[in-house]
Design brief:
By secondary structure, the chain is α/β, with parallel strands linked by helices. The protein is built from 16 helices and 17 strands. The strands form 3 sheets. Strands 6-5-4-7-8-10-9 form a 7-stranded mixed beta sheet. Strand 12, helix 14 and strand 13 form a beta-alpha-beta unit. The longest helix is centred in the first third of the chain and has 21 residues. It is globular and about 70 Å long. The protein starts with 17 loop residues before the first helix and ends in a 10-residue tail after the last strand.
C-alpha cells in the first residue's frame, strides 16, 4: 500500500498503477453484481441479452452465404440449432421487439414481422424434457407439463376451471372465466336460444379464447371453431389450445381486419374477451359484422353485459346492435345473444354512431394487412345465397359447390373436379405412401396452399382438423372454404406464420415454389430455405411433411430437407393424376440441444 504515501504532486491523474486498476475493477464488479441481482434492470438486461443472442446469429452477410450455399451448393451444409432461450420464439409476435411500438388500438400486439435478414436462420429446439404430445381425444383433457412448462395460467385461472397442474400433466377441466362450471353446461345454456345441434351452425369464431375450451367442446356438436387470442400476459394460451388439438392461432383485433373473408362465421363468440366493441365509432363491432354470416349469431358474455359500473358501455353496445337491426334473442345473466339480419342491411338509417354502408367498391373479403374500416360491409357485394339456414346444413355443405365458387371462371366445374381429385390423392397418401392420416398420430394439420379446401374435405371422417391457408397473393378462395364448413386464414409465406413452435402434426403443400414466386415476374420474393425453416418451426418432432411439385423442385426440397434434419423419401404421383408432379414425404427427426437425435 506504499503508493498511498506518494506526494500528490508526483502523481498525474492518468498514472494509475496496477493495484488502482484492480481495486476499481473489483468495486465496479461488486456494484454491477448488486445492480443485476437486486434490481429490475437485471431482468430487463437478461431479456435483451437473450434477444441479442437470437439476433446475433443473423449477421446478414453470413446469413446470405448460408442461404446461397443451401439453395445452390452441392456440398451438404446444415442449419444450426437456435439457442435454448428460443424454444417458444414467434418472429412476428416477439414481445421484446413489439413493445416499443404504438399502444394505440393495440397496434403493438398485432403481427409485426422482422425483415428476413434480421431473422436468425436456425432451427428452434424443443424444451428440455419434451415428449411426443398426448394424442386426441385424450389431449382435450390433459397435456404434458414438460412440453410447455408455463404455470402462469394454472396459478391465476385454476379456480375458474381453466387448467391445473397434476403430476406430469396439465389438466383441463373445461372451465373458463364466464363458465367456471365448464364449457359443456355453458354450451347447453346457449343451446336454449340458438341451434347448436343439427348442422345449421358449423363455423364459429371465438375471440379472446383463453385455452379454447369453448371451441374444444363445440367439436362434439360438429361445430368447427377458429379460436384466437394475442400473445399476452396469459403466457402461451394459444400454445396450450393447439397442444390440446383444438383449432387456434395467434391474432389481435387492433388496427387491421382479421385475416378472414367476409361473412364466414355462422357464430361469433366472446366470453370476457374485453374487446371494446363500441369504441372508435363501433369499429370493432363493424369488424365482427363483416365476419358474421347473414342470419348468424353473436354471443357476448361478460363485461359490459349487465355488468356493475358499465351501464353506459352496455347501453352503447345495445345501441350499435339496434342500429344494425340485429335481433335481440336473449339476455341471460351476463350473456347477450343477437341474430344478424338474413337480408340486406337496414342502413342507411339515423343512428348516433354515424354508421354507414361501405362503397360498392369495397371487397369485404380483402383482409391481409388491411386497415379496419369505419363502414359496414354490404352483403349485396356477394352474389348468391349466404345466410345461415338458407345454405345447406353440415355435412351437405361440404360437397355442394357454394355460390362464391362462381367468382372463378367455370368455378362450379373446377370445384367438383378439385373435390374428386383430393379424394383420390388422400387415399393414395394413406394407402400407398403410408402417411398416418386417419390414425391418432395426426390431429393438427396445415394445408399451406389450400385453394378450395379439397384436401381438408377429403379427410372429413378422420379425427383431424385442418388450418387451410390461402396465400394472400393468390386468387381469394378462402370464402369458399368457409362456405363449405371448413376454416382457414390468409397468409403470405414470405413471412412467418402466427403460431407457436411445434403446433402441427402434418404440413401439406401442393406447389411449394408457387408460394415464394411473384406470379407476374416469375422471380422469387423470398427463398425456400427460410420457408422450410419456418415449416420446421411449426412442425412437431416426428411430424410429417407432404410436398407436391415438379421433379426439379422436389429434388431441391429433398436436399434442403437434409439441411433441416428431416428424413425424406420421394414418390411418384397417383396413377390417375396428370402432369409432372412428384411427392416428397418427410419426417422431422426428434432432436434436442442435449443430444443430436432421439
Amino acid at each position: 500500500m506504499g503508493h498511498l504515501n506518494l506526494p500528490t504532486s508526483k502523481r498525474s491523474p492518468r498514472q494509475w498503477r496496477l493495484l488502482d486498476l484492480v481495486s476499481a475493477a473489483f468495486f465496479g464488479l461488486v456494484f454491477l453484481f448488486f445492480l443485476l441481482v437486486f434490481t429490475p434492470l437485471g431482468d430487463s438486461l437478461a431479456a435483451s441479452g437473450r434477444q441479442a443472442l437470437l439476433v446475433s446469429t443473423a449477421d446478414p452477410r453470413q446469413r446470405q452465404r448460408l442461404v446461397a450455399l443451401l439453395e445452390f451448393g452441392t456440398q451438404s451444409a446444415t442449419v444450426d440449432a437456435c439457442p435454448a432461450e428460443s424454444v417458444d420464439h414467434m418472429p412476428c409476435e416477439d414481445p421484446r421487439r413489439n413493445s416499443q411500438l404504438s399502444r394505440e388500438m393495440n397496434f403493438y400486439r398485432e403481427r409485426h414481422c422482422p425483415l428476413p435478414e434480421e431473422t436468425p436462420l436456425c432451427l428452434i429446439p424443443p424444451p428440455d424434457g419434451y415428449k411426443i404430445p398426448v394424442q386426441w381425444p385424450e389431449s382435450l383433457h390433459k397435456i404434458w407439463h414438460s412440453n410447455m412448462p408455463h404455470n402462469k395460467i394454472a396459478d391465476r385461472k385454476g379456480h375458474q376451471g381453466w387448467m391445473k397442474r397434476e403430476g406430469p400433466y396439465f389438466i383441463f377441466p373445461g372451465g373458463g372465466t364466464m363458465f367456471p362450471d365448464g364449457a359443456i353446461q355453458y354450451i347447453e345454456k346457449l343451446g336454449q336460444y340458438i341451434p347448436i345441434s343439427g348442422g345449421t351452425l358449423r363455423t364459429a369464431l371465438d375471440m379472446g379464447c383463453g385455452v379454447a375450451s369453448f371451441g374444444g367442446y363445440l367439436l362434439a356438436e360438429d361445430i368447427l371453431t377458429m379460436s384466437f387470442a394475442p400473445r399476452d400476459s396469459h403466457k402461451s394460451q394459444i400454445q396450450f389450445a393447439l397442444e390440446r388439438g383444438i383449432p387456434a392461432f395467434v391474432a389481435m383485433l387492433g388496427t387491421r381486419r382479421l385475416p378472414f373473408p367476409g361473412f364466414s362465421f355462422d357464430l361469433v363468440h366472446c366470453s370476457r374477451c374485453l374487446i371494446p366493441f363500441t369504441a372508435y365509432n363501433a369499429t370493432y363491432f363493424i369488424e365482427v359484422d363483416r365476419l358474421l354470416r347473414p342470419g348468424g349469431y353473436l354471443v357476448i358474455s361478460g363485461p359490459p353485459v349487465q355488468w356493475p359500473g358499465q351501464d353506459k358501455e352496455w347501453a352503447d353496445l345495445q345501441g350499435v346492435a339496434r342500429a344494425l337491426c340485429y335481433e335481440l334473442i336473449a339476455v341471460d345473466g351476463n350473456t347477450v345473444i343477437w341474430k344478424k339480419p338474413a337480408g340486406d342491411s337496414c342502413l342507411p338509417n339515423q343512428n348516433e354512431f354515424g354508421l354507414e354502408l361501405c362503397d360498392e367498391s369495397d371487397d369485404p373479403s380483402y383482409a391481409w394487412y388491411f386497415k379496419l374500416k369505419k363502414c359496414v360491409s354490404r352483403t349485396s357485394s356477394v352474389k348468391g345465397e349466404l345466410a345461415v339456414a338458407m345454405i345447406p346444413k353440415w355435412p351437405d355443405r361440404l360437397t355442394k359447390a357454394p355460390s362464391r365458387a362462381t367468382l372463378m371462371k367455370n368455378g362450379i366445374d373446377v370445384f367438383e373436379a378439385d373435390t374428386r381429385r383430393w379424394v383420390r390423392r388422400a387415399a393414395y397418401y394413406k394407402n400407398s405412401l403410408n402417411v398416418k392420416l386417419g390414425t391418432s398420430a395426426i390431429r393438427n394439420i396445415m394445408d399451406m396452399n389450400a385453394f378450395f379446401g379439397g384436401f381438408a374435405a377429403a379427410l372429413k371422417s378422420d379425427p383431424v382438423w385442418v388450418m387451410n391457408v390461402v396465400p394472400a397473393r393468390k386468387t381469394s378462395t378462402l370464402s369458399v372454404i368457409y362456405d363449405r364448413g371448413l376454416i382457414g386464414v390468409y397468409h403470405d409465406w414470405c413471412e412467418p406464420f402466427s403460431t407457436y413452435p411445434r403446433t402441427y402434426d402434418l404440413i401439406h403443400v401442393s406447389g411449394i415454389e408457387s408460394l415464394i414466386r411473384d406470379s407476374g415476374s416469375g422471380k422469387s420474393r423470398c427463398n425456400l430455405v427460410d420457408l422450410m425453416a419456418e415449416m420446421d418451426r411449426i412442425l412437431r418432432p416426428e411430424g410429417t411433411v407432404v410436398i407436391r411439385d415438379s421433379p426439379e423442385v422436389i429434388d431441391k426440397v429433398a436436399r434442403l430437407a437434409r439441411a433441416v434434419k428431416w428424413t425424406a423419401t420421394i414418390h411418384e404421383k397417383e396413377p390417375e393424376s396428370h402432369g409432372r408432379e412428384k411427392i416428397l414425404v418427410a419426417i422431422k427427426n426428434f432432436w434436442s440441444l442435449s443430444s443430436s437425435s432421439h
